[in-house]
Design brief:
This protein is of the alpha+beta class. It has one domain (about 1-85): Alpha-Beta Plaits. Helices cover about 25% and strands about 40% of the residues. It contains two helices and five strands. The chain has helices at about 15-25, 50-60; strands at about 1-10, 30-35, 40-50, 70-75, 85. Strands 4-1-3-2-5 form a five-stranded mixed beta sheet, with helices on one face. Helix 1 runs antiparallel to helix 2 (about 50-60).
Length: about 90
């Protein structure tokens, strides 16, 4: 299992992006979080097996009906997430 952090750019704040990502990540059994950043981006993190990473990235790309993702930066992190996927404030 590996942990990842993502920085999502585009129209991702004020369009229910975090709520939709959290709902779909919870439904798919992911552990981690999603939160808004002061610079207009959204940060998300997850711990998952490599074979499930594509499914999580799809959730990030899909966002909400009103969102529009222009880019996603990805990095490995050492933090491990266990439990429900949450919205952080």
């Amino acid at each position: 299992m590996q942990s990842y952090k993502f920085f999502i750019s585009g129209r991702v704040q004020g369009v229910y992006y975090r709520a939709n990502v959290a709902k779909n990540a919870q439904k798919s059994g992911f552990s981690g979080y999603v939160k808004n950043l002061d610079d207009g981006r959204v940060e998300a993190a997850v711990s998952c097996h490599n074979e499930h990473l594509k499914a999580f990235k799809t959730i990030l790309h899909n966002g909400s009906p009103a969102s529009s993702v222009s880019s996603i930066e990805e990095q490995f992190i050492d933090e491990f997430f266990n439990g429900e996927f949450e919205i952080r404030y």
